């Protein structure tokens, strides 16, 4: 990571399922035999905690980290990559590609590209492939649930270079318990309540965290130190549903 990127405190990162899964993806592309391609793909629904996992892995593996913006062009992506590499961007897009290749070839540190769907849709997958091929650096891409099929449709050459592809998993009650202990250590939440929270949240880590906070806030008001499903009762939880929209049958 560049000097401007604050390090992640690994002591505050919960050992969640998707943290371990993405860590395995990065390890496999970093430790691959040199004749193998070095691109990994981690994909799944929004809210599964993929970015959370990426920032932990970036710190652990001393990886360069880019979170791609929806509006980014190829030139903007290359300028951001070079800034992360500690280089001053100059010249045309082709010149910046050569700069990135040169910089990465010196150390072969991994590059994590978050929100890679924007790269796919804006049409510069082949730029990533060229930088990967010529530098030898491993690239770990993070995208939404359709990323594997979108990559296959847009660039067979890029798709052929994916060494490992791993789907992010919905959060379960065990992971919810880890978050509860991490963020609300003075509050005991029973397994049956955690099951309720996970179901209401659709397995999305972000929603689980919001619902844990809801329970903690209510517990503070009520003076609870232990909450089970019966005590929580029918109180409202965040589901992500749009008000007034009926679910499809």
Largest beta sheet, briefly?
5 strands, parallel
Catalogue the unreliable spans. Answer: 1-12, 245-249
Distance between the termini: 47 Å
Query: Strand order of the main beta sheet, please?
Result: 2-3-4-1-5
Helix run count: 12
> How many individual β-strands?
7
Structural class: alpha/beta
Beta content = 5-15%
Radius of gyration: 21 Å
**Mean of residue pLDDT values:** 91
Oligomer: single chain
- Taken in chain order, the helices and strands follow as HEHEHHEHHEHHEHEHHEH
What form results from the Cα inertia axes?
A: elongated
Helix content: 40-55%
Provide the descriptors you would attach to this structure in a database record.
single chain, 249 residues, alpha/beta, five-stranded parallel beta sheet, two-stranded parallel sheet, 12 helices, 7 strands, 50% helix, elongated, disordered N terminus, disordered C terminus
Could you explain the architecture of this structure?
The chain is of the alpha/beta class and 249 residues long. Helices cover 50% and strands 11% of the residues. The protein has 12 helices and 7 strands. Strands 2-3-4-1-5 form a 5-stranded parallel β-sheet, with helices on both faces. Strands 6-7 form a two-stranded parallel sheet. α3 runs parallel beside α4. The longest helix is centred in the last third of the chain and has 18 residues. The termini are far apart. The N terminus and C terminus are likely disordered.
């Amino acid at each position: 990571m560049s000097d401007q990127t604050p390090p992640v405190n690994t002591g505050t990162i919960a050992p969640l399922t998707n943290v371990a899964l993405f860590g395995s993806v990065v390890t496999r592309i970093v430790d691959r035999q040199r004749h193998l391609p070095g691109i990994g793909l981690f994909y799944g629904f929004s809210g599964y905690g993929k970015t959370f996992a990426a920032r932990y892995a970036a710190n652990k593996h001393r990886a360069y980290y880019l979170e791609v913006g929806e509006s980014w062009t190829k030139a903007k992506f290359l300028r951001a990559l070079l800034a992360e590499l500690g280089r001053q961007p100059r010249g045309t897009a082709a010149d910046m590609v050569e700069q990135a290749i040169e910089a990465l070839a010196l150390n072969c540190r991994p590059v994590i590209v978050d929100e890679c769907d924007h790269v796919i849709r804006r049409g510069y997958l082949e730029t990533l492939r060229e930088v990967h091929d010529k530098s030898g650096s491993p690239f770990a891409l993070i995208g939404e649930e359709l990323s594997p099929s979108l990559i296959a449709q847009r660039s067979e050459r890029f798709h052929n270079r994916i060494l490992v592809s791993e789907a992010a998993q919905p959060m379960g009650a065990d992971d919810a318990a880890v978050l509860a202990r991490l963020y609300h250590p003075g509050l005991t939440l029973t397994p049956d309540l955690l099951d309720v929270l996970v179901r209401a949240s659709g397995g999305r880590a972000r929603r689980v965290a919001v619902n844990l906070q809801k329970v903690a806030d209510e517990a503070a008001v009520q003076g609870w130190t232990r909450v089970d499903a019966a005590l929580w009762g029918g109180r409202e939880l965040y589901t992500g549903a749009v008000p007034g929209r009926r679910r499809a049958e």
